[in-house]
Amino acid sequence: MERVRIAGTGSYVPPKRLTNQDLQNMGLDTSDEWIRTRTGVGERRIAEPEVATSDLALEAARRALAAAGWSARDLDLIVVATITPDTCCPSAANWLQAKLDAPQAVSFDVTAACSGFVFALNVAEQYLKTGACRRVLVAAAEVMSRTLDYTDRATCILWGDGAGAALLTRGGEGPELISTHLHTDGARGQDLLLPGGGSRTTPISHESVARKLHTLKMIEANLSFRIAVRGFVDAIKECVAANGIGLEDIAWFIPHQANLRMFRSIADTLKIPFERFYVTLDKYGNISSASCAISLDEAVRDGSIRPGQLICLPVFGGGLTWGSALIRWA
Predict the structure, then answer these.
(1) Catalytic residue among 20, 94, 181, 256
(2) 52, 140: one domain
(3) Is 89 a catalytic residue?
(4) Known catalytic residue: 256?
(5) Residues 166, 206: one domain?
(6) What pLDDT tens digit does each residue of the chain (330 aa) get?
(7) Candidates 20, 94, 122, 286; catalytic one
């Protein structure tokens, strides 16, 4: 069977910065030291009001296409991972398809919260391995800033906006997507909840707005932290075991950018040097599905990733969802 290759990556974050000091100036009971100590976030990027998720995905996709030397007309499939689509209908992928002018490509969204990029890679992998498609665009994009209650210190300090993209193909040369591994636990879906917009709270009413049902809720943050650490650790162990390698064989761990303390706990648990974790959390905050994709592209472009290295992408998110991908760079 021909191997699944990554032909190019791209990413984009909006220029507007929201710093920890800005949040304090808005009247939030917090400080730069408080946020950095508990999360590792220094600032996050915020999309302008007229910018939608597909606009961010478009910029990331264009950069990935340029890196691969492809045209949008080369694409057979467009998969967008997001929990903040432009509209419930049509999908963010449909909007992106139109903006790319790629009418020949089938397009749809994948909803797996912060694990979305790896879930979308898995979808692309299946289409490529069966021969149904030859060239696939995977984009992960979010406008998380529009899901936030800026009086809720537990959540609003974490999230930002942005997009990352990868182009995958079958056969040829280049970095190889070796494997992907996925898991879900719907019974714990309430731990990270965005009630508004779904059938439970539609149409929007004065009551639903007053009850803040259209903003992100994090239930039992301390418990969620422990569950997430366990999910990340299990995902990394599964990736290693499935491919018959050791933790020492992996050059970089590029996780979903959730929390710096979480990364240190994962590193301590697995006895991995923390320096092998690639971190963008301080610059961009948590961008849900897009975090992992943006970090991968930045690691490629700044030369951190070198030919021959194994890269593990562990992810964990609402749903609950978790998993990993293993890539050998070339």
Answers:
(1) 256
(2) yes
(3) no
(4) yes
(5) no
(6) 789 999 999 999 999 999 999 999 999 999 999 999 999 999 999 999 999 999 999 999 999 999 999 999 999 999 999 999 999 999 999 999 999 999 999 999 999 999 999 999 999 999 999 999 999 999 999 999 999 999 998 889 999 999 999 999 999 999 999 999 999 999 988 888 887 778 888 788 888 888 888 888 876 556 688 899 999 999 999 999 999 999 999 999 999 999 999 999 999 999 999 999 999 999 999 999 999 999 999 999 999 999 999 999 999 999 999 999 999 999
(7) 286
On whether both 248 and 137 belong to a single domain, the answer is no
* pTM of the complete model beyond 0.90: yes
Residues 196 and 128 in one domain: no
Domain that residue 19 falls in: 4-173
Distance CA 202, CA 289 (A): 24
Cβ(279)–Cβ(56) below 8 Å: no
Number of domains in the chain: 2
CATH of the domain at 254: 3.40.47.10
Please give the C-alpha separations between residue 284 and each of 19, 25, 57, 250, 299, in angstroms, as whole numbers: 10, 19, 16, 25, 14
- Do 195 and 162 share a structural domain? no
Q: What is the pLDDT of residues 77-103, one digit of tens each?
A: 999 999 999 999 999 999 999 999 999
Given 94, 114, 181, 259, the catalytic residue: 114
What's 187's DSSP letter?
Answer: G
Residues 188 and 165 in one domain: no
Residues 250 and 317 in one domain: yes
CA–CA separation, 269 vs 167, rounded Å? 33
Annotation says 243 is catalytic = no
Do 299 and 271 share a structural domain?
Answer: yes
Which residues, other chains included, contact 281 with Cβ-Cβ below 8 Å and sequence gap of 6+?
39, 40, 41, 257, 258, 259, 260, 291
